[in-house]
Amino acid sequence: MTTSSKPPRAPAGLARRGARFWRRVVGPFHLDDAETELLVEVCRALDECEALHAVVDEQGRTVAGSRGQVVAHPALSELRQTRLMLGRLLAQLELPDEDGDALRSPLQARGRRAATSRWGGARRGTAS
């Protein structure tokens, strides 16, 4: 990704959240074709999360099951799956953070926390 002077327009069909994220990414960066396709899917996933949130807000977190029992709304499961996919797509896109470093995947973040915990204590003289 490099700096660009004229960002591409958002794809047709994006809702507010996806279009807003599109503008935030393509403004400062020039994406190659593969990165642009990933960004389109990230934006669609963000819009899907918003739509699923709206369904749960409107219908509640639980619904009646096939035998009348109270069960979690199916949109909650879909929302969880969409969030997982979104995290993976964002990790593949490798957007930089404020310091210019690529954002860490959840696995990288866990590894860094573990290493900091393990070696941070040794530097402070608390590990034996």
Main beta sheet: 2 strands, antiparallel
> Domains counted in the coordinates: how many?
2
Computed over alpha carbons, the radius of gyration is 20 Å
The spatial strand order of the largest sheet comes to 1-2
Q: Could you give the order of the helices and strands?
A: HHEEHH
Oligomeric state of shown chains? single chain
**Approximately how much helix is present in the residues?**
55-70%
N- and C-termini, Cα separation: 44 Å
Task: Give the overall shape, derived from the CA principal axes.
Answer: flat
- Overall mean confidence score, pLDDT: 84
Number of helices: 4
Number of strands: 2
How much of the sequence is in beta strands? under 5%
Structural class based on helices, strands and sheet pairing: mainly alpha
The low-confidence runs, each spanning 5 or more residues with pLDDT under 50, are none
Overview of the structural elements:
The chain is mainly α. It has two domains: 16-95; 104-128, no CATH class. It contains four helices and two strands, in the order ααββαα. The chain has a two-stranded antiparallel sheet with strand order 1-2. The N and C termini lie far apart (44 Å). The model has no long low-confidence stretch (mean pLDDT 84).
Quick take:
This protein has 128 residues and is mainly alpha-helical. The chain has four helices and two strands. Strands 1-2 form a two-stranded antiparallel sheet.
